[in-house]
Amino acid sequence: MPELPEVEALAAYLRDRAVGHRVQRLEVASFSALKTYDPAPSAIAGKEIVDAGRHGKFLDITFDGGVHLVVHLSRAGWLHYRDAFASAAPLKPGKGPIAVRVRLDDGSGFDLTEAGTQKRLAAYLVTDPAAMVPGIAKLGPDALTADEATFAAAVRGRRGQLKGVLKDQAVLAGIGNAYSDEILHAAKLSPFAMSDRLTDAQVATLHEATQTVLNDAVGRSVGQKAAELKGEKRSGMKVHARTGLPCPVCGDNVREVSFADSSLQYCPTCQTGGKPLADRRLSRLVR
Ligand SMILES: [Zn+2]
């Protein structure tokens, strides 16, 4: 699932590759993916791409005239940049993983794709992303740029276990399942620690860990081609998706425990005083 660093890298790639080009055609193959109807996709033809950026995990592509294509890639969505398309024929609706295709004036362009059967990728053509895209108005401060005071107020303002608080887009925008594991490992904090019980020093450490982990990931990702970003994301991970492997910091085995509707990975020696966390969901079932 793309998180802040990957979306930042996709935006950087589009700024480098697509800005300055005009749209030849915007094709929609998955009508459930496009959440808006005004302006129509046909209204984008002839417009120049003037910028690409993001709001948390939302990618925002700006066309001249102030129209934006905003995309939430969700769990299995991705952006594939094509130097050329094999066929000039418009996409057939409802077939295959391509939801939206944008063809540019130099023959290149990009596809928004979604693997799997659960279709959750969401695209919006809007003139005002903050007002018109559900979710953007509710985003908390950006996790990459929040200063320590803003970060502290955000984290302490929502009482809960740190794993859930960091992933809550209304608290901090941009962090998902993978980078929350990495940030908590870098901060040497338990994923189950309560946000409102952190000392000032722990909050400062958590802020610094967030900056370090996200900046490192952005640094590794930016400049990579979109197709290589997924592998790049995985290569930098110390605990996420590494259950049973040695922690690169201390050598202890990375462990996994269920959390909400998913699972998290952590290092007991680095984060929980050497004690494995109890799997609360499992113990509830057993009892
Ligand atoms: Zn460790």
Question: What order do the helices and strands come in, and which of them pair?
Answer:
Layout: H1 4-17, E1 23-28, E2 49-55, E3 58-63, E4 67-72, E5 77-82, E6 98-104, E7 109-114, E8 122-126, H2 129-132, H3 148-156, H4 162-167, H5 177-186, H6 200-221, H7 229-235, E9 255-259, E10 262-266, H8 268-271, H9 280-286
Antiparallel strand pairs: 1-6, 2-3, 3-4, 4-8, 5-7, 6-7, 9-10
Helix pairs in contact: 1-6, 3-6, 5-6
The structure holds zinc ion.
Strand order of the largest sheet: 1-6-7-5
User: Which CATH class of the largest domain?
Assistant: Alpha Beta
From the N-terminal CA to the C-terminal CA, the straight-line distance is: 33 Å
Supply the number of structural domains: 2
Give the CATH H-level superfamily of the largest domain: MutM-like, N-terminal
GO molecular function, one term: zinc ion binding
Domain FPG-type: 238-272
Domain Formamidopyrimidine-DNA glycosylase catalytic: 2-94
Family: Belongs to the FPG family.
Task: Summarize the structure in short.
The chain has helices at residues 4-17, 129-132, 148-156, 162-167, 177-186, 200-221, 229-235, 268-271, 280-286; strands at 23-28, 49-55, 58-63, 67-72, 77-82, 98-104, 109-114, 122-126, 255-259, 262-266. The chain has 287 residues and is an alpha+beta fold.
Structure keywords:
9 helices; 2 domains; 4-stranded antiparallel sheet; 287 residues; N-terminal domain of MutM-like DNA repair proteins; Helicase, Ruva Protein, domain 3; alpha+beta; 21% strand; zinc-finger; binds zinc ion
